[in-house]
Design a protein that fits this description.
The chain has helices at residues 39-43, 49-54, 77-95, 104-107, 114-135, 162-181, 204-225, 249-258, 271-276, 281-291, 317-329, 353-378, 380-388, 404-414, 425-438, and strands spanning 13-14, 24-25, 33-34, 37-38, 45-48, 99-103, 138-143, 186-190, 195-196, 230-234, 243-244, 265-270, 294-298, 338-340. The protein is α/β, with parallel strands linked by helices. Strand 13 (294-298), helix 11 (317-329) and strand 14 form a beta-alpha-beta unit. The structure holds D-xylose (XLS) and nickel (II) ion (2 copies).
Length: 440
């Protein structure tokens, strides 16, 4: 048994909004039932392995600042990976999050050959299985890292080199098998470097076909191995490439339809990616439900003034309430959940900072859940929405079978002038603010 890494903390308990204990939940009460399910069931929190344990706080101007001894390059990579995993499961179980998420290369080091990388991963899977068993922590999703190694400099599925496409396919097959073996609830495909830097060296139509073929292979493999989780694409408009093909929910939906995948693949919506695409988080959730492709959420936040993927922990109850409202209206999660794809700021160098970050994120989401449930229970928002569209009630066909010309001719005769009514945006915003304020 290795020494505890987070030795100051035994577990994070719910103490209620009036508690001043910074190492306790003030809003997230896992077993509390709201709207027919526990908070834990509604929110399905996951800790992301990469930000929390595989990254040491580097930025483009400086090296790591965080205390992550297993990242020391002088260490034996497999010993270090085992120590990292012990710390990760210690953290997630002390926090009381039900899930974690990983990239293959987060949990096992890259080998000098593909076969060695596979062996490393398989060995770490045994250990991960034991940790899951012991702690009760489950896998929300696995994903393959097809972007860090230099071989992926020109993308994976969209790479101009067919050998690289085949390499990436092999890696994804292995990672899907790994995810299934650990009982993963979903499998995620984030584009990584699937996009372009300049059209001068890019055949976009060909690359899109390659990507469509790749995703079809993934779906075929899902059935071949009997994986019953969702396959999720994570939209992102840019970064690292100048233009990413999975730009936003609408672009992904169009892509899935073109390549015959709209019934097979859903989306993992990241808050910060939504804002980078020029959308609100709530917009992307609503767009996904409207298209029938909602899957899961990467919960984080950007910064109003900075246009890159900052991956802060979410702190805005209002932003999250509006997203949660769309989530609940759409029916909530099935196998998806809320993964904190979020990282500590570079100066947050105390071990407990990782708890503070997740406590803040989980409390923010719990408050948002309470506020959204209150808004729905109160019913006024839905009543007003129904009223706004009441004119369509009972209309089976939008035009009643009339053609454009007939609509024209009828209008000419009737000369009806529709009455304008207020959209009441400010009133509705006040209503949301009231519920955020009052929700307990
Ligand atoms: C990067 C993505 C990444 C995915 C997993 O911006 O958010 O972290 O969630 O590959
Ligand atoms: Ni993400
Ligand atoms: Ni991201």
């Amino acid at each position: 048994m290795t020494e505890p890494f987070f030795s100051d903390v035994d577990s994070i308990a719910y103490e209620g909004p009036d508690s001043d204990n910074p190492l306790a939940f003030h809003w997230y009460d896992a077993d509390r039932v709201v709207a027919g399910a526990t908070m834990a069931e509604h929110l399905r929190f996951a800790v992301s392995y990469w930000h929390s344990f595989s990254s040491e706080g580097i930025d483009i101007f400086g090296t790591g600042t965080l205390d992550r001894p297993w990242l020391d390059p002088a260490r034996d990579p497999m010993d270090a990976a085992k120590e990292k995993m012990a710390a990760a499961f210690e953290f997630v179980s002390k926090l009381g999050a039900p899930f974690y998420c990983f990239h293959d290369r987060d949990i096992a080091p890259e080998g000098s050959t593909f076969a060695e990388s596979c062996r490393n991963l398989d060995e770490m899977l045994d250990l991960a299985g034991e940790h899951q068993e012991r702690t009760g922590v489950g896998l929300l999703w696995g994903t393959a890292n097809l972007f860090s190694h230099p071989r992926f400099q020109a993308g994976a599925a969209t790479n101009p080199d067919p050998d690289l496409f085949r390499y990436a396919a092999a890696q994804v097959a292995h990672c899907m098998n790994a995810t299934k073996r650990l009982g993963g609830a979903n499998y995620v495909l984030w584009g990584g470097r699937e996009g372009y830097e300049t059209l001068l060296n890019t055949d976009m139509a060909r690359e899109l076909d390659q990507l469509g073929r790749f995703f079809n292979l993934v779906v075929e493999h899902k059935y071949a191995i009997g994986f019953d989780g969702l396959i999720l694409i994570e939209p992102k408009p840019f970064e690292p490439t100048k233009h990413q093909y999975d730009y936003d929910v609408a672009a992904v939906h169009a892509f899935l339809q073109k390549y015959g995948l709209a019934d097979e693949v859903k989306v993992n919506i990241e808050v910060n990616h939504a804002t980078l695409a020029g959308h609100d988080f709530a917009h992307e959730i609503a767009a996904a439900f409207a298209a029938g492709i909602f899957g899961s959420v990467d919960a984080n936040a950007g910064d109003d003034r900075l246009g890159w993927d900052l991956d802060r922990f979410p702190v805005s109850v209002e932003q999250m309430t509006l997203g949660m409202l769309e989530l609940l209206r759409g029916g909530g999660f099935t196998s998806g959940g809320m993964n904190f794809d979020a990282k500590l700021r570079r100066q947050s160098i105390d071990r407990n900072d990782l708890f503070h970050a997740h406590i803040g994120g989980m409390d923010t989401m719990a408050r948002a859940l309470l506020a959204a449930v209150a808004i729905i229970d109160d019913g006024e928002l839905d009543r007003r929405l129904a009223e706004r569209y009441a004119g369509w009630d009972g209309a089976d066909d939008i035009t009643g079978g009339a053609s454009l010309q007939q609509l024209h001719d009828t209008q000419l005769v009737s000369d009806a002038d529709p009455t304008r009514v207020s959209g009441r945006q400010e009133l509705l915003e006040n209503l949301v603010a009231k519920h955020i304020e009052r929700a307990r």
